[in-house]
Amino acid sequence: MKKYIIIFLITFLIIITSITKNSTRELENIIFNTEEKIKILVGKKEMVMLQNNYLSSPQRLFELKKKFFGKDLEVLELKKFKYFYNNEKKQVE
Questions:
Q1: DSSP letter string over the chain?
Q2: Using one digit for the tens of pLDDT, what is the confidence trace for 29-42?
Q3: The total number of structural domains that make up the chain
């Protein structure tokens, strides 16, 4: 009787251990995949931030203005803006 209890106990422990290992492997795979996705998103975020900082710097904006528009752009005064209300033309004074 004692031998049966020991054999049953050993078998039970082996089964519990294999179930625990399988669960742990699945969790490790999920964690690994999530970490990889986070790394990819962080890389994309850094690239977007670099592009934003590079393109939106004042010096870069002036360079792009000269390159693409030359002297086509003019500075407008606020008084020259016209607002339209109900299809009527009105000048702000």
A1: -HHHHHHHHHHHHHHHHHHHHHHHHHHHHHHHHHHHHHHHHHHHHHHHHHHHHHHTSHHHHHHHHHHHTTT------GGG-EEEETTEEEE--
A2: 999 999 999 999 99
A3: 1
